[in-house]
Write a structure and sequence with these properties.
With 469 residues, the chain is mainly α. It is 43% helix and 3% strand. The chain contains 13 helices and 2 strands; from the N terminus they run H-H-H-E-E-H-H-H-H-H-H-H-H-H-H.
Length: 469
Amino acid sequence: MADVRDILELERPPTPELTKEAIIGVSDKKKIKPKKAHEPMKRPEGMHRELFALLYTDNMDAAPIFPTDTGKGYKQMKAKLGMRRVRPWKWMPFTNPARKDGAVFHHWRRLADEGKEYPFAQFNKQVPVPSYTDSEYRSTLATGLPGVTAGGQDGWSREETDHLMDLCRRFDLRFPIIHDRWDRSHFPERSVEDLKERYYEICSLLAVMRGQETKTYVFDADHERRRKEQLRRLFERTPDQIEEEQTLLNELRKIEARKKEREKKTQDLQKLITAADSQVESRKAERKVNKKKLLHHPLRPRPDAMAVETAGIKFPDFKGTGVSLRSQRMKLPASVGQKKTKAIEHLLHELNIELNPMPTEEISVHFNELRSDMVLLYELKTALATCEFELQTLRHQYEALNPGKTLAIPMSVSSSAEKSLALSSPAVPGLQPPQLTPQTLEAQKPPKPMSEIIDVVGSPGTPPGVSGT
């Protein structure tokens, strides 16, 4: 590269001096890194940022000895000077209207405010203490009004009452100060409650006498004494009593936690029972469907007419502790279906009974018993309708197998039941009367004279080959 530069007559950098260090690449001198001019100083480990900011700044200036306003802080204050002239101030005297001694003070004030009232005098609020005349005291405060107790009966004299009202005006109803300034050399010892009771008694008597009943004051001195006594006992408790109270509170919390756990388990159990009841009802519905399918089967087994479920409503027992509404006892359980609920509402409407009466103890018990009997009546009517329908079906099967023969059923069992069902079916929603065919209508006519009545369910008078078995 150097030869090329010589041929082209170009300048070349001077040839460095060959030394041992340049050839070997080892130097005894350590390279010193140039220090940056504005390198920030690191905060020592363990020192808070606020403390480090007080000691050092970005410019590495020393910490200030006294507060200064350099304009390099978090907020730079800039004075906004206008072109208007500065309002003049003057050292002038003033008086405070709240003071009664006429004292004169001086302060700086604007010339525009000269002659105005001292602005802080508006904060001097005084309590209006009522006053009375000699005739008012003799007619009212000494004897009292009819139905109102007078303080004179408690030993309050005119001089003692005047001294109390004077202290109330001087100290703005600060009764602890009034009690401290009470003149015990001329008057008997009075407590703070006695002073309050006498003062508010005078206010109420004067308000009633002057027709200002809206401003009647009442002070319960006995309640105040009991309150202070309770506070004194609470303050004078010993460490052992405090520890015992804390122990009792901890035991109470444990009892409450166990009670909540038992209530939760009871609710879970009630949910399981409700789910089981719903499953039982679904199975009963499936059995009813299967019975309807087997109505026309020639080899259907004989039904048991006495197998009627006559269970009413089982209301849950509220035996848990704590506050509860009595109206919850009248709430229908979840096991009662929608059809039964509508039937109960319809029957209550027919009887002119409210759906939600006043939940007293006696009304709750009788109302639950009434609805339980209504559900029982509904189930009995449903079972009776099912039996009558099956009986009519068997009669039709008998007439089909024996043409020309008419099966007579006692009127007290069949026709009366059909009429009662026909009349009661509209009162019970969801309960449909049995379907009547032309043969059924023919069978409802008065029966012809027969030598004997034939039973179709296997009685001794049943002809051979006609039994349902």
